[in-house]
Write a structure and sequence with these properties.
Helices cover about 30% and strands about 10% of the residues. By secondary structure, it is an alpha/beta fold. It folds into 2 domains: about 5-130, 3-Layer(aba) Sandwich (Oxidized Rhodanese, domain 1), CATH 3.40.250; about 155-270, Rhodanese-like domain (Oxidized Rhodanese, domain 1).
Length: about 280
């Protein structure tokens, strides 16, 4: 894997059955939280475990938090151990939305110091198109231990820090669709708009029309064009810190470093009515 952040279906097929590798299915529908698991039960990549966004990749939200706060590292590590993932395991994560959900697990694994993880390029649709089979059988998971030996909390930005970081030159990039960013629609949160000063970079820009990641050269050009000469640290946000991880994955592929994640994102920003809200596009 050589720590490259994406892997193609052919290489994954070659590794299926290797006890040193684990596959995790991250399919999830924000409007129907049970749908992803039901699709997993109906057929998944052989040996794949299932990660539920709200139950496994997030903690229960508390007052004034966003919709998908991070779990404590030790809690997340225990769940990894339940899936048979140790510190030496190679991991491939996938979904059926171009990595929109799987990127959250990719980021979280790296957050707790595990670099041997890649997102399946093109996800389940590409797997099937390449001739990959599915199975309904649930894998047996021998429990192991995972130790979060290097937690990168420096990659996390709190809601209290956002305004100060923007004033100091950091660049806040919003992964949501243009209509949500502009405030034209908001299907998930009670207030529409965006954080003043944020620039819009829908995570879908990372992908080709086939749902695979664009090349390093193409992604780098897209990011640099959007940044328009801004050189501050890059902070990714979205609605609740999920598709923002897709932006961070795109930055990684583009060779722009790791960036930071505003975990609470828009759903936390709007918890305080005193925080400003912008609509329309920003220059």
């Amino acid at each position: 894997m050589a720590n490259y952040p994406v892997i193609d279906a052919e290489r994954l097929a070659f590794r299926l059955g290797d006890p040193r590798w684990r596959v995790v299915d991250c399919r999830f529908d924000l409007n129907d939280p049970d749908a992803g698991y039901n699709r997993y039960l109906a057929g998944h990549i052989p040996g794949a475990r299932y990660a539920h966004l709200s139950d496994d990749l997030a903690a229960a939200p508390k007052a004034h938090e966003g919709r998908h706060p991070l779990p404590e590292p030790e809690v997340f590590a225990a769940r990894l151990g339940d899936w048979g993932i140790s510190n030496s395991t190679r991991i491939v994560v996938y979904d059926d939305q171009g990595g929109a959900i799987a990127a959250r697990l990719w980021w979280m694994l790296r957050w707790v110091g595990h670099e041997h993880v890649a997102v399946l390029d093109g996800g389940l649709p590409t797997w099937r198109a390449s001739g990959g089979v599915l199975e309904e059988e649930l894998p047996e998971c021998a429990q192991v231990e995972f130790f979060p030996h290097r937690v990168h909390n420096e990659w996390i930005v709190s809601v209290q820090d956002v305004a100060k970081l923007l004033e100091s030159g950091s660049v806040l990039i919003d992964a949501r669709s243009e209509d949500r960013y502009r405030g034209d629609s908001e299907p998930l949160d009670r207030v529409a708009g965006h954080v003043p000063g944020a620039i819009n970079f829908p995570f879908s820009v990372n992908l080709t029309k086939e749902g695979r990641f664009r090349s390093t050269v193409e992604l780098r050009a897209e990011f640099l064009d959007k940044l328009q000469g801004r050189t501050g640290r890059l902070i990714a946000m979205c609605g609740s810190g999920v598709t923002a991880c897709h932006l961070l994955l795109g930055m990684n592929i583009a060779g722009l470093g790791d960036g930071q994640l505003f975990v609470g994102s828009w759903s936390q920003w709007i918890q305080d009515p005193k925080r400003p809200v912008a609509v329309g596009f920003e220059a």
